[in-house]
Automatic annotation (TrEMBL):
PROSITE patterns to which the protein is assigned, alphabetical: ODR_DC_2_1
GO molecular function: arginine decarboxylase activity; metal ion binding
Record's keyword annotation contains Lyase: yes
E.C. number(s) listed in UniProt: 4.1.1.19
Pathway: Amine and polyamine biosynthesis; agmatine biosynthesis; agmatine from L-arginine: step 1/1
Keyword Lyase carried by entry: yes
Gene: speA
GO BP: L-arginine catabolic process; spermidine biosynthetic process
A Pfam family matched in the record: Arg_decarb_HB
Record protein name field: Biosynthetic arginine decarboxylase
Name of the top EC class for this enzyme: lyase
Organism name: Meiothermus ruber (strain ATCC 35948 / DSM 1279 / VKM B-1258 / 21) (Thermus ruber)
Residues covered by the Orn/DAP/Arg decarboxylase 2 N-terminal domain: 97-362
Required cofactor(s): pyridoxal 5'-phosphate; Mg(2+)
Amino acid sequence: MPPDIPSVACARRPGFKLEKLKRYTAKDAEETYLVPHWAAGFFRVGEDGELEVTPEGAEGPSASLFEIVQDLRDEGRPLPVMLRFPQILEARVVALNEAFRRAIKKYHYNASYQGLFPVKVNQRRMVVETVARAGKPFAYGLEAGSKAELALILAQDLHPESIIACNGFKDDDFIRLALMGKKLGRNVVVTLEKFAELGRVIRIAKEIGVEPQIGIRYKLKTKGSGAWEESGGEAAKFGFTTPEIIKAVDMLAEAGLLGTIAMLHSHIGSQVTDIRRIKQAVREIAQTYVQLRKLGAPVRYLNLGGGLAVDYDGSKTAFYASANYTLEEYAEDLVYVTKEICDGHGEPHPILVTESGRAVTAYHSVLVLEVIDTIRPPGEERLEQPKDAHPVVKDMFELARSISAKNYREVYHDAFANKDTVQNLYDLGLISLRDRAAAEALFYQIARKTLKLALELDYPADELEDLQKMLADKLVCNFSLFQSLPDTWAIKQMFPIVPLTRLNERPTREATLVDITCDSDGKIDRFIDTHDVRNTLPVHEIRPGEPYYLGVFLTGAYQDVLGMNHNLFGRIGEAHVVVDEHGYEIERFILGEKARRVIEKMGYEDDELAEAVEKLVRSSKKLTPAEKGAFMELYARELVGYTYLED
Ligand SMILES: *Cc1c(COP(=O)(O)O)cnc(C)c1O
């Protein structure tokens, strides 16, 4: 794509050169990578230029992520690796509950908050167990969206009053499992997603001999904002319409079971970026609560579902990667609006429930990638002009020599036209591969100079973005986007990405990232920015023999479960790290999937594969016995090896 060079010269950027001469410090790096904007106090750049984790906030203990990764490598652990910080997870659970406690106190709300963690956001054992432990003092509960999720939830150690909510479409066994849980003394609420589930619940409750606690999911008219806007509103997949609610109330009243309606539930979608939508949804659901109470349904729990957003880009806006409100404001708005509406109708304040998943888990995990190679666009080396070069190539040399602050726009346009000409000549067989290569290298050389001059002279204009993108390095990172950052591919999610070291050195290169799958979608070329989206990431010149790690942050929500085995890259290893005043401790390391495991998922048996390969080897006349042995050993080793590149 030809970049449009801005035709109007912009105002000079004063001090640009001075700025370049100044020493680049940790503080500068924090701004380059926007760390204080998205880190919520859990990460910062240390004076020594290393990215640090501070799981208990800035005042608490800290540890360098680079050191943690180096220790893991010294232990022989392969990359990529997921670092998990249980303390961050605990801190988020506490922060959520404390925010509601404060809001309840502030507005003299007469009931409590009893949140739920929807396990679909991250069902990893360490995550669910840590959340359950941290939430126990707050009677924080868990939410299941399927039978399998309920099966793992029923085994968790929760406060006796913690709610276990069963959402999702249900068959008889799902309902049986839920109602048996209730009979066993757990505070299980069966949330009806659609009207037909009501008859089933009544029938199975009779069969089992237990009084159910029913939740009704209400189809909000209010829509969310951001990428999940369509989860709410009238076209939503789940929930009761108002006529269905009336029908359900009548049906339950007739069966003498009106008293079983315990919860009113709603969910406007994930990552709701605009607080106004949330307030509007609370108003709507609180009014519905009041109306249900008036119909005689003794609703106790008012559940606003998920949607509490994470400010991934740190811009504090309603942009899809951000949020224009804080946890504090969220809690206060829910409490205040509900109270106001209930008081207006003389109805009791319900126990407030939310199902915040993303906001609880996103911060606790950091994906660590190693850059294993750099792919650079041509044109960085100096070229000597050969005597017999084609006239177009000679012209390109002349353009490259003559480019200056005065003429760079025309020169670039001419070079661009020449590049096209060369392509046409080449297609007609009128120019050699060597000449074409020279012309191409010169074109990149001119483009590089154009960008440099434009940046030095003018405010960087949006039009230069294409040029920047074209000239960016491609850093090859040892990971699979589809396994570790599936939302980057699926929904253009952006995560903050920061080098783990050298953050007191000015980054001098701009890069995009590519993974090691053979899928051309396996790349990252959109990065966070407070005003917009960046096409490239500032990085350092990579020094041979020195590891360069990139941390991908806020990856704790949804990525673990949605990850897939594209190209048979398996789940990666993970380290659980605890930080205290004495340093840090790698509490646990969980190995990544072995190749064998991933291959088996596709229907193969590893011993059958080994047998077939052995047969092939034995029948070979070309291999010596030693070669046969070595190959069989290599094959066997690969089957139990890590699926990523190991050097
Ligand atoms: C997915 C989901 C959630 C979690 O939403 P977040 O935006 O991650 O907090 C909560 N409730 C229901 C019903 C969901 O489907």
